[in-house]
Amino acid sequence: MYLKRTLLGGLVTLTLSTTAYGQETSDGTQVFEPAYFEQFVPRTAIDMVSRIPGFQIRSSGGRRGLGQGGANVLINGDRISGKTNAGDQLSRINAANVVRIEIVDGTSLDIPGLSGQVANVITKSTGVSGTWEWRPEWRNRLPANLYDLKATVSGESGDLAWSFTAQNNPFRNGNRGLETLTDANGVLFETRNEDAQFFRDNPGVAADLTWKPKQDHVGNLNLKYNQVNFNGREQSRSTAVTAAGTTGETLFSNAEDEWNASVDVDYEFPFLMSEKNGKLKLIGHYRFEHSPTISRFDVFDPVLGRTSGSRFSRAADEAEIIGRAEYSWKPNDKGDWQIGVEGVFNYLDIASSLVVLDNGVFVNVPLTGATSRVEEKRGEATLTHSRKLSSKWDVQASFGAEYSELSQDIGLTRNFFRPKGFISATYKLNDSTSIVTRIEREVGQLSFFDFISSVDVQDELDTLGNTSLVPQQDLFAGVTLNKDFGNGNTLKIRAFHTFISDRVERIPIGVDGDAVGNIDSANRYGITFNTTLKGDKWGFKGTQLDLSFLLRRSSIIDPIGGFNRRLNGDTKSNWSVEFRHDIPNTSWAWGFFADQNIRAPNFRLTTTEQFNLDRPWSSAYIEHKDVFGLKVRAQIGNLFDASGDFRREVFDNRRVNLLRIEDRSRSFDLIYNMRVSGTF
Questions:
Q1: pTM (2 d.p.)
Q2: Which of 168, 493, 614, 653 sits at a 20 to 30 Å CA gap from 441?
């Protein structure tokens, strides 16, 4: 009875408290000063934003064109330039240059497309300064990863603020374990001992420039260059259990030698209607990537040596060029308007080849549709209006359309006209509770790789290019409840439903073709739950617990079997828990993290596949914030010894008769890493 009264009293106290853990302004904006983050000893702005209770960064990467809104992070009240990743941008801002971070409601801003919580990072110049970080990692039976490094230097000179970053983001990954092959009756006929290793080096440099030549004029230039050098291999030693099995060895390896570069630029200045704060913003984005790849697969017999082999190689050049103009004005204090126009040119140019071993010599095999060029030209126009209806209601609506032309160098050109837009409303029940609703019609971005045929030499699966693909269209509806209980305790619950048209999934083509194509309709819906609990209220000073949970369902009619199933590879559920304890009056902190993601299977023409971890992924760390001026963290990953479990069912054509089942479980072992960071 005492325990029930204690819990009830704590819940009542929590619910009645409405003071934000940071400071809160009269309009409900939460303000976090640098003092709030002192216990974490942040090095960059990303270290600070990631510690704000209840806030999660939503990046703009992967969206169609530039569009509206973008990431839910602003720098000094402005959107991040072009398609620059929000996390990357924040990691290049020295924590010493952050004046404060404001958490505001996106619908109340005069930035079309933003809704929900938005972090506005206010910065200043403190002269030339820099940050650096070293993240070494050690894993069993793999070489040490010692060259994960990053350094940024920033400063200001007159009207120009600048930062330069150099980094290498490598990995040394791998797993190993046993695979079993059984026939349709469950009889084991072959076992395979497998070992996989994947190495990547990713050196790159970036430069960010902000120019403010005069009042209300601001320009941004972001430059980025990266190299990606990847090598992977999977070795499998098979042992026949029955006459249906084989004894021997296979070796699959693949490699990529990529470089990519991007330029993002924008300039905003007063233009016309000065009495209504008229502003014109011009935005440009350019990205180019050159990525030659090769895949090799060889089969070895204990007596005969190599009995078969194949090589699939291709060189892909892809680019995106975007120009956008936005004109905004504010006729009164209750509303603002914006007109946006955007033009886009995308292309993918691929040259592919396949050779197979024939009597000890590799010979060319003709490939249909594996060498081609795909282009897209697209234009869109939108009109957006934001209005404050009352002290409790903020509304933002946008209406527009896009026209696109898809063409391929086989003489095929197609045109599309798609309406698009959204309406978002925020209702503030009180200073600590808000409800955000959003209805949006979106047009998806196609992967041009799906237009061009490819070969999987490891599993002997061919994917035909589909020249008839059309962009997916989504009608999204969602409602989010945000509750701030005070003292850093927050709750966010979100329910959503997406009605999908022209869903991009795998479909059968022709007699025995397997390609990515369109299915008329599908649905996806679910609920997410996120909460942050600070232990200070209950006497556990310096502790923070973050919990999140996603439950999602989806439905689509399988194009082969005609039955209702989930979307290919769709997340069914996901949960995570993170705990951190900054021990009061010391420089020590410790914590742990765990999560698990459950996915739906993937359906192809002749296979069904499913991959999941058998146990939660987890890690624990201990951190000292002042080791001769450095912050040092030691961490152990995969505490629960999770393994990657993969199951493939192989059928004859169109999944009629089951031929065999492949089951494998690969262990990752423990992962040891450190994180050492400092400033200069």
A1: 0.88
A2: 493
